[in-house]
Amino acid sequence: MSKLDLSWDFYKTFLAVLREGSLSAAARELGLTQPTVGRHVDAMEAALGYPLFVRSPHGLLPTDAALALKPYAETLSATSAALLRAASSQRDAVSGTVRISASEVIGIEVLPPILAALHEAYPELTIELSASDAVEDLLRQEADIAVRMVAPAQEALIARHLGVVPISFHSHRRYIERRGMPQALADLADHSLIGYDRETAAIRAIIARSPELPAARFALKADSNLAQLAAIRAGFGIGICQNGLAARDPDLLPVLPGLFEMKLDTWLVMHENLKSAPRCRVTFDALAKGLRDYIRGVAPATHDSDASASC
After folding, report:
1. How far is the C-alpha of 13 from the C-alpha of 137, rounded, in Å?
2. How far apart are CA 120 and CA 91, in angstroms?
3. Which residues pair with 126 in a beta bridge?
4. Nearest 5°: CA angle at 285, between 243 and 266?
5. In terms of DSSP bridges, do strands 157-172 and 262-271 run parallel, antiparallel, or are they unpaired?
6. Who has the most CB within 10 Å: 134, 141, 178, 201?
């Protein structure tokens, strides 16, 4: 077999083994038998002329050569998925698959009713929802449409600014009844705070813009914003959440209103090549309307750049 004879199936198997760390786990993910997965890896190594994995007590460890191939295999995977989504729809019909990328909180707490209404209007449309705080690359076609809390910097993307989402301190009524309501930011040092377990770029930006905040000594640390929100709702302590979500529950009380508030710019983004695809256009418009309704329920929209960034 020559290097030109490698099929996409081999790259797909290679990527699954990389992600899962063993032949058996990759086989389960792909719906193949373990011997088939092993043959794919062997055939790829034979064609390339060097090993891709080393066996160890902890599974298959990728070689440096395998790690160098990983981004290219990921690009093939994203392109293949995008091709299948495009091929699944008829040219002039609203059907097929649209993949949406959004943060955990937006994807799970905000988008479901918007997507339910979209599905009711277009039952032939299939939605893939990637609810993750990892940013998927639209240029690499890892998603068709993305809801982002930062302005996109890449060219070839259509971006619509939807407004700002305010976030601030909240706590459950049960916690406030037990521990009392803080009256100043300095009082937070005497309370059970809910926060992050890793200092990301976004967290560092919040700290830099809020020097008046006391040093955070969290009683609960979580790397998931949803886990933090669940802890606030459970009455564990005081944490930061979107004002619009807190407003849905009369038992979630604002803490130190007016003394601390951050605003998340909210953007809807799509690759310009998809603007003529009916499945993407109706989904983009439905998300724009639904997210604007959500934002306007908690604060007036402060900016609208549809005229300059319309699709």
Report:
1. 22
2. 21
3. 97
4. 35
5. antiparallel
6. 141
